[in-house]
Amino acid sequence: MDQYPEEPSSRMSRRSLLVGAGTALAATAAASVLPAVPTASPTLAATPDELQLVALRQPIELTTQRRGTSPALPPIGVIAFNRMAYGPRTAQDVERMQAMDAAGFRAFVEEQLNPNEIADAELEQRIRAEGFRTLAKTLEQLWADHSVNGNTPPADFTGDSWSWRNLPAAEVEQLTFLRAVYSNRQLQEVLFDFWFNHFNVLANRNGSYAAMTLVSYERDALRQHLFGNFRAMLEAIATSPAMLEYLDNYINSAAGPNENYAREIFELHTLGAENYFGSGRQEGVPGYAEGAPIGYVDGDVYEATRAFTGWTVANGRDGRPNTGQFVIHEPWHDRFRKQVLGVILQPNQLPLQDGRMVMDLLAAHPGTARYIARKLCRRLISDSPPEGLVARVAGVFLAHKDAPDQLRRVYRAILLSPEFAQTWGAKIKRPFEVTVSAIRALRADFRPTGSFLSAYNQAGQQLFAWAPPTGYPDTRDYWSSTMPMLHRWRIINLLIEEGIRALRQNETSKFITVDIVAQTAARTPTAIVDEWIGRVLGRPMHADERAILIEFLAQGRNPNFELPAHLIRDFTPRMVALLLMSPDFNWR
Amino acid sequence: MANQISVTRRDFLVGCSAAIAAMAGGRLGMAAFSDPETAANAEVLVVVFLRGGMDGLNLVPPIAGPDREFYEVARPTLKVPTTGPAAARELGSLGTVQLGLNSLAAPLYELYQERKLAIIHAAGLRHETRSHFDAMEFIELGTPGSKGSSTGWLTRHLQSAPNLPDTIITPAMMAGNATPTSLLASTEALAISGPDSFTFSGNWRYVDMQRSMLRRMYNGDSFLHQAGTQTLNSVDIIESTLPRDNNGRYTYAPANGAQYPDSSFSRNMQTVAQMIKLDLGLRVATVDLGGWDTHENQGSGDTTSTNAPFPARIDELARTLLAFYTDLSGAGNANYMRRVTVVVMSEFGRRLKENGNRGTDHGHGNVMLVLGGGVNGGLYGNWPGLDKAQKQLFQDEDLAITTDYRQVLSEILIRRMGNPNIATIFPGYSGYVPLGVVQGEDLQPIVPTYDYQSYLPHVVRGFPVTIAPYPEP
User: Fold this and answer.
1) Complex ipTM value
2) Is A263 a domain residue?
3) Which of A469 and A468 is assigned the larger pLDDT?
4) Residues of B257-266 as b/e, b for ≥16 C-beta within 10 angstroms?
5) Residue pLDDT, tens place only, A40-54
6) Which domain holds residue A51?
7) What's the total number of domains in chain A?
8) Same domain, yes or no, for A546 and A494?
9) Mean per-residue pLDDT for A451-470?
10) What local confidence, expressed as pLDDT, does residue A69 receive?
11) Fewest Cβ atoms closer than 10 Å to its Cβ: which of A164, A470, B128, B271?
12) What is the pLDDT of residue B246?
């Protein structure tokens, strides 16, 4: 009864995803929400070529479509501020967004690609004001304080041991909101969100290595490399205690192999499932004979599992010290010959050499270049970016695979592509984007308090809390379903009404304070609506929807006459709420 | 049903919002959705997940024979008695063992005697993990050993169900605040911890106005406009169909003298009952009951005191399930229970041997319960025995698993829900044979054939690798 017969479940489980993908394809192609019946689904038994055809059959929203179906293509400034940033915040942002021409756009891209040269004084002041106590700690300090001594909080800590252990994750969660709202390095924040989800770990699990060391994961593994080199980021992730525990490599040994991390580094971090050739022989992958297999099979995953044996954490077990650092536990390492992606890893190499060679092979693979390029384009442009663009961006990725600024070059290629400037409305904001861009649009005084987070988390995109290694979905189907739609409206009313209440009760402890009326110069309904449309959307609103806002604000009066002060006071904030709930605020 | 108005999910999408809004004022009954007589189209599956690892050996303990002796030796302070007022109710034999039901679960004993409750012992997740998190993920993703799936098993059931017509507006709900992994990535499930949570919130003076303005704003034919319309319609329907008291709060009056205990689990089950009775086409509901991780002073079940965690939870569970069953078992069309199946499961059972703190640590095999009108009541499974010397225990310490939880769920999916796509819902699970727990037609399980998969919606595998030099801007 000790051992179960090995079921091919880990492999088969990936197959299950085809069903999901097939359903998504079928649903999109048919413009319907009907669940597809697998037996009738054209994609279940489809060859790759057929899949491509299905993908091509659906409209590629590259250009403005007929009115009512998709929104009109907005000026480049609007596209830039909604995809490279969480919308405009300051008056200068609005001015820049509205006035942006081609040269201004290129300047904006160059500026955002070099975040360290952008001043961020307001953000830094707000971070200081929060009095965070874990953000400056090294990995070793985090481990000593929150793991080794995780059950004994210091005397000046008011919470219990549970909150002390998980404090690094809690503070990074608050920090991430502050940065997204107040940082002038907006592209960096957008990309941090992308790469965190790409290298997803679950940090809201009590006592997980991710929870106790998220400060280091965020800073040392991810942000350090956001504009740098992919291969370097890959190794920083692979040697982080957060990832080592989350995907179980910390217990991967020659005697008891665990393939979880090895599986996901292929399937999610580098080559992607699109380059997976199933359970066949390594020799059977096209290109193998030429020494360049175009994809991977289970055999590569198993061999990579062996390569990563012994990559673990100094967690005080099995004779290792208890420092939280990455170590290779040599007795666990499988030192014999391995073969990964057509390359022989010789026996008895230096212990780290095997894993590093696997990462070298993965990071330099054309399949990885395409997969990363496609995912970035999916985040920054549309759910199904054109293959031509993906190939071009992948080319940049590969051509600069050893460059210290490889990723910056990749981002530049995407941002300055014609596709970036000529597409709109193929995606909608996710809950995090809705929330952050609304707070920015309101120019609110905001603090990510516990009561804010518990309300925000209802919306379905709680930070660092997505359990599967895939990261949050990045397609519009998922985020336009009923619950996310309802919550994208609820969060707006929450922000507006709490902002009003904080003002009225003159409270400073609320998570948001905003005086919408004081920010409004105009006095007639039409002018007030247009003032807010201009600063929030930076472009004309759909005429029918603008008329609805005016009607709401006018309350039966002539919209071109001055509105009485009490109506301005009561209805302007709720009109702004409607504007932030409108379709036009949600496109990206 | 001469004047029935047909409303479909597709209608919702294409914006007949005025009609829906008008209709929502009245009661949207089966007339608009599906015919109650076509039972196969109206089956409801309620999945109750006991979070924390329920101690199945103390819910359904051995009461006679050699295994009773092993049990008593292993649990000197926690054993369920076989004599006295708290004696376990006799259930019958499963193979070589005589099993009983903890007296605190007496409400369930009524259902068992009516043969509406099936008990499957030594069932569970056939994986070695004793981590709550891992075990729940594996079970609810439907992929033991792998956390790579991005959809839950119920999500895939809803996606693949061949009998889920366009007329269903709310096919799935989760009663509670969190989305269970079993419904991960479902785009159709509503989270309803009480009807109040599925509302459009805001300042009461403006919120109705805002809603009507939003309805007019989201009146277009883009996917976003359609999604907005559908959401507003769902909110309208739920708000307008649920009864309210004079203060505008939602109320619920259980039928048939059902007596629900007062607890949040009980309220969630009442919300599910309410949704079933509303005939909105509900097919799947999930409800959680936590508090089973009883590492210390768990309480033995030999007392009527429900202060200790285990007796308190058993009492709450049993009374709620009986009330739910009673509530939905009216006459004629009010006999909803004939098309409702409730399955109760937990991530794992607990260690045979009690620990030093009068509690039990994480174990392995466990009990699953299935109740409903279409259930063949009784004891099911293969009793593996508790004899350590005979290697009957899993890793020498826990009740072994002889029935894969997926076998039970597959039978419910096929025979009750009419969905034979087992390989889609439980990838990698093969060799399904029905245990006979529920009644229904045996459909041939469908095994899709494909050799390609991806997380991503639009990908092309292995096209020629040509990297053209790209002139960087």
Assistant:
1) 0.85
2) no
3) A469
4) ebebbebbbb
5) 333 323 333 322 222
6) 9-57
7) 3
8) no
9) 89
10) 63
11) B128
12) 74
Residues B270/B260, Cβ–Cβ less than 8 Å: yes
Cβ–Cβ gap B392/A1 under 8 Å? yes
Assigned token pair, B389: 């010397």
What are the residues facing B173 on neighbouring strands?
A: B190, B285
Answer yes or no: is A129 within a domain. no
| Tokens matching residue A223 | 């942000």
> Does residue A535 lie within any of the structural domains?
yes
Percentages helix, strand, coil for chain A (3-state, rounded to 5) are 55, 5, 40
Q: Is B424 close to A468, i.e. CB distance below 8 A?
A: no
**Average pLDDT of the segment spanning B343-362:** 92
d(CA A409, CA A117): 17
Tell which residue, B362, B135, B129, B125, has the closest CA to residue A467.
B135
pLDDT > 70 in chain A, percent: 88
Coil, strand or helix at B403: strand
- Which candidate from B151, B200, B221 shows the least CB-CB separation from A69? B221
Instruction: Please state the rounded mean pLDDT for residues A550-565.
Output: 97
- Give contacts of A268 with chain B, Cβ < 8 Å: 455
Does one domain contain both A535 and A570?
yes
Q: CATH 3.40.720 residue ranges in chain B? A: 37-194+254-425
Q: Are residues A486 and A547 in the same domain?
A: no
Question: What is the assigned CATH class of domain B37-194+254-425?
Answer: alpha beta
CB B437 within 8 A of CB B380: yes
- What is the dihedral sign for C-alpha A441, A442, A443, A445? negative
A469 and B473 within 8 Å at the Cβ level: the answer is no
Alpha-carbon distance of A542 to A585, in angstroms, equals: 11
Cα distances (angstroms) measured from residue B138 to each of A252, A468, A509, B198: 19, 11, 42, 29
pLDDT of residue B209: 94
Q: Which sign does the torsion angle of CA A313, A315, A317, A322 carry?
A: positive
B445 contacts on A by Cβ (under 8 Å): none
Of the candidates A11, A29, A46, A272, the one whose C-alpha atom is nearest the C-alpha of residue B448 is: A46
Is there a single domain that holds both residue A506 and residue A535?
no
Q: Do A260 and B227 touch (CB under 8 A)?
A: no
The DSSP output letter for B426 is S
Are both A533 and A509 inside the same structural domain? no
Nearest to B213 among A33, A470, A548 (CB): A548
Q: What is the DSSP string of B188-247?
A: SEEE-SSGGGSS--S-HHHHHHHHHHHHHHT-SSSHHHHHHHHHHHHHHHHHHHS-B-TT
Lowest mean pLDDT, pick from A91-105, A283-297, B34-48, B210-224: B34-48
Among B127, B148, B203, select the one facing A468 at the smallest CB separation: B148
Give residue-wise pLDDT tens across range A394-453: 999 999 999 999 999 999 999 999 999 999 998 999 999 999 999 999 999 999 999 999
- pLDDT, mean of residues B193-215: 83
Residue A6's identity, in one-letter code, is: E
Q: Which residues pair with B120 in a beta bridge?
A: B368, B380
Residue A96 lies in a domain: no
- What separation, in Å, do the N-terminal and C-terminal C-alpha atoms of chain A show? 55
Contacts of A489 in chain B (CB under 8 A): 200, 214
* Mutant choice from B153, B192, B206, B391 vs A, greatest count of A C-beta within 10 A: B206
**Residue-wise pLDDT tens digits, A111-149:** 999 999 999 999 999 999 999 999 999 999 999 999 999
**Residue B450 C-alpha, separation from nearest chain A C-alpha, in angstroms:** 5
For A34, which of B149, B166, B207 is closest by C-beta distance? Answer: B166
Let me know: does A221 contact A443? Beta carbons within 8 Å. Answer: no
3-state SS of A68-128 is CCCCCCCCHHHHHHHHCCCCCCCHHHHHHHHHCCHHHHHHHHHHHHCHHHCCCHHHHHHHH
Find which of B51, B134, B136, B147 to mutate to test the A interface (most A CBs within 10 Å of its CB).
B147
